[in-house]
Design a protein that fits this description.
The structure holds two protein chains of two kinds. Chain A is of the alpha/beta class. Chain A is built from 23 helices and 20 strands. Chain A starts with 16 loop residues before the first strand and ends in a 27-residue tail after the last strand. In chain B, the strands form two sheets. In chain B, strands 5, 6, 7, 8 and 9 form a five-stranded antiparallel β-sheet that branches. In chain B, strands 2-3-1-4 form a four-stranded antiparallel β-sheet, covered by helices on one side. The chains are: A alpha/beta, B alpha+beta.
Chain lengths: 582, 196
């Protein structure tokens, strides 16, 4: 078997020492400056855990309660810290429990290195105890994966894994290591980080002529519109992005993944795109003359019906991944490359401009949305609590400095619509895959990824019940996570669709919940449940001020809907503001 | 845009699991692979996939981009049948007694340029290398004479305009390869070869 032809051999070193494959794994993590591992031991990964016993001082290992919790925690860690999240899991069920998180990280471009144990090499293919074909199961949901059966490969394979996970468009990498390789002693000559693989081009070369063409289009535009995604955050190009839009004077809207790359109150920030995004950015997508897409991939939840999406506009698409160009929306000018490089080049060539009338259109739309949706959501006239007013009070108390981790569903849309963000990497959510159960473990990871900030996990009653076992992880390791459950006693988003599109046929969306406060109490976590408006502020304050983790359940209106909405199958300009318009 | 037959040529590292990684790019999109062949290439350590599908050019281009996105893929090209020289190998097993008795069969085999690979008392195996229409036609004509077994190989193809991969590969070894090796010049063109 010829392998890793492109990986450089480690320099021969006379001071080679005999170490096990397991020690080589941990040395690789140290060399890559990993400080936290999320994992769960088991039979086939025991040699690595045995070695970990001696690395306790240098590597922090967080024992989760389920491998899915480990991988979502690693995702939260990666998203909050901007670095690679690391996961340990055993073979068989340990590895298969990672699949949801891998798919989530793959679609949301989250850098991960997952190390799974595997049965002895001589048992591969024999249906051995806890043997699963992990490489083939995870191939569609990993950026790269590789099975190690010989310990001598470990340093170079892990170097490659970290390089691939974090470079270019980031993504999850899985390394499956057979037990014999973990135990095998070999001459270890040190760790050499990888920075080149001949068959892998993480960054396309920036082509000047395309930048020039893009600048020409922008300079001639009358109604230019910027739509940006997580690429700005992943490229660590927040500053470059701001300089670009501020010089160009172009109204800019974010996708759910791009949110927090600029502060939500930036004067050129016009809101969120997508199915439950803001009215103006959706409507005016179909009125702009030049659409500048930056580090986003035209997901169907953003575009609505493709044949009714920005047909009038010339499209400039900046992306690091060549496969994204023309995938969904045809680009007039493709600008391939890392936006950290392409944006400054573009900024240099564009004229300083303002578009007061065009920007006013967005403000008018905002006013209409305020009147028809936002005002009632944030300051409701009725008795029942809305999710929006809870978020409003939370904003007032955190000042927009918290990391907000959301789960999936109505509360996610409301949180992303109304939460205030001052800093980048503040919004951690499962955008592409829509993984319920993501928020609690991801928030644990985020608390380790950036311990200097308050982490608030906003979760629905449904999603919380999917991964609430991770309360045990909080109990044991005490990361500070503020858990805010917005409980509407329904699987709210599905219920909303059943109400709007399935003639009120509520099919299995009525979900009962345990006493969450009692559950938390069982895990040694303080909590409170409220249902009245006058309690919201003090309860949220109590949650935030509490030393350590706290669970706050807020009972909200059972049948509140999230609006505006671009109903499925319709164009972005067909966005509706109220139920009557659906 | 109408569908046509496209031959995709992929240069890759020789790594276990890569066949699966490439195959699922097609199966995920419910695209049937008409023919798939893997072999060494002209360059040592580089593998070559030849894949035939029937799709629109737009789909084929997107597929090539997804293929090239894979870490161990060096390059993916796509070509129409006119842009390549190609062959498929077919084997036919026919009862030997029929060939002996029927002069017609012998004439047919000559006409199709078939070579006998094995001759036994009970059967004879012939091989024909050629285009699919030719090998297909021979099935039809042999059927009445008791064709016992038929099998056809995957397509192998050489791109007419390709200058080979030796020079290209050298550039891949560099950190900063030449522009045409990597990028977008050919983005919406399909001149000599498709490249990204």
């Amino acid at each position: 078997m010829e392998t890793l032809a492109s990986t450089k051999e480690a320099p021969t070193n006379s001071t080679a020492q005999s170490v096990s494959g397991s020690v080589a794994v941990l040395e690789a993590l140290l060399a890559e400056k990993v400080d936290t591992i999320f994992g769960y031991p088991g039979g086939a990964i025991m040699p690595i855990y045995d070695a970990l016993y001696d690395y306790n001082e240098k590597l922090r290992h967080i024992l989760v309660r389920h491998e899915q919790g480990a991988i979502h925690a690693a995702q939260g860690y990666a998203r909050a810290s901007g670095d690679v999240g690391v996961v340990f899991a055993t073979s068989g069920p340990g590895a298969t429990n990672l699949v949801t998180g891998l798919a989530d990280a793959q679609i949301d471009s989250t850098p991960l290195v997952c190390i799974t144990g595997q049965v002895f090499a001589h048992l591969l293919g024999t249906d051995a105890f806890q043997e699963t074909d992990v490489i083939n199961i995870t191939t569609p949901v990993t950026k790269w994966n590789y099975q190690v059966t010989d310990a001598t490969e470990i340093p170079s394979v892990l170097a490659k894994a970290f390089y691939i996970a974090r470079s270019g468009r980031p993504g999850p990498v899985l390394i499956d290591i057979t037990k014999n390789a973990q135990m095998q002693l070999f001459d270890y000559t040190g760790y050499t980080p990888c920075n080149h693989i001949r068959s892998y081009r993480p960054k396309p070369i920036v082509r000047k002529e395309y930048i020039e063409e893009a600048a020409k289009l922008i300079n001639a535009a009358e109604r230019p519109f910027v739509v940006f995604g997580q690429g700005v955050i992943l490229g660590k190009a927040e500053k470059e992005f701001r300089q670009f839009i501020e010089k160009a004077g172009i109204p800019s809207a974010w996708t759910i993944m791009g949110m927090s790359a600029i502060p939500t109150d930036h004067p050129l920030g016009v809101g969120m795109l997508g199915m439950h995004g803001n009215y103006g950015p959706n409507l005016l997508t179909n009125e702009c003359d030049v659409l500048i897409a930056i580090g986003m991939r035209f997901d169907d939840r953003v575009t609505g019906r493709l044949d009714k999406y920005a047909k009038q506009a010339k499209v400039i698409h900046l992306d690091i991944d060549p496969a994204e160009i023309d995938k969904n929306v045809k680009a007039t000018v493709p600008v391939w490359g890392d936006c950290k490089e392409t944006l400054p080049a573009l900024t240099e060539l564009i004229e300083q401009k303002v578009y007061p009338q065009w920007l006013q259109r967005f403000r008018d739309c905002r006013e209409k949305e305020e009147e028809k949706v936002i005002r009632e959501e944030l300051n409701p006239s009725g008795d029942v609590l809305t999710m929006g007013e809870v978020i409003r009070v939370l904003n007032e108390l955190t000042g927009g400095d918290a990391i907000i981790v959301t789960d999936v569903g109505q509360h996610q849309m409301v949180a992303c619509r109304y939460a205030q963000y001052n800093k980048s990497k503040s919004n951690i959510t499962s955008g592409g895959l829509g993984t319920m159960g993501y928020a609690l473990p991801a928030a644990i990871g985020a608390a380790y990824g950036d311990p200097s900030r308050t982490t608030v996990a906003i979760i629905g009653d449904g999603g919380f019940q999917m991964t609430l076992q991770e309360l045990g992880t909080i109990m044991q390791f005490k990361p500070h996570v503020k858990i805010l459950i917005l409980n509407n006693s329904f699987l709210g988003m599905v219920r909303q669709w059943q109400q709007l599109f399935h003639e009120n046929r509520y099919s299995f969306v009525n979900i009962t919940s345990p006493d969450f406060v009692q559950v938390a109490k069982g895990f040694g976590i303080s909590g409170k449940s409220i249902s009245k408006r006058e309690e919201v502020r003090t309860a949220l304050k109590e949650m935030l001020d509490h030393p350590g983790s706290f669970l706050l359940e807020v009972m909200t209106g059972k049948e509140n809907n999230v609006f505006p909405m671009v109903p499925q199958g319709r164009g972005v300009a067909e966005i509706v503001l109220t139920r009557e318009e659906v | 845009m109408s569908k046509a037959e496209y031959t995709i040529t992929v240069y890759t590292e020789n790594q276990i699991g890569l066949l699966n990684r490439i195959a699922i790019i097609f199966s995920r999109r419910k695209i049937n692979i008409d023919s798939l062949n893997t072999s060494p290439s002209e360059v040592d350590s580089v593998h070559r996939f030849t894949i035939v599908i029937n799709e629109t050019e737009e789909v084929v281009r997107k597929l090539c981009r997804q293929i090239e996105k894979q870490v161990e893929v060096l390059k993916a090209y796509y070509n129409t049948a006119e842009e390549i020289v190609w062959q498929e190998l077919a084997l036919y097993k026919v009862p030997t007694e029929v060939i002996q008795a029927e002069v017609k069969v012998e004439r047919l085999l000559r006409q199709y340029g078939a070579n006998a690979v094995v001759i036994r008392k009970d059967y004879t195996v012939f091989e024909v290398a050629g285009h699919r229409e030719e090998t297909d036609r021979l099935i039809k004509v042999l059927e009445p004479y008791g064709l016992i077994e038929f099998v056809r190989s995957g397509r192998v193809a050489i791109i007419k305009d390709s200058e080979g991969f030796h020079e290209k590969l050298k550039e891949f070894e560099y950190r900063e390869p030449g522009e045409d090796t990597i990028e977008n010049e050919f983005l919406d063109q399909n001149e000599k070869v498709f490249t990204m």
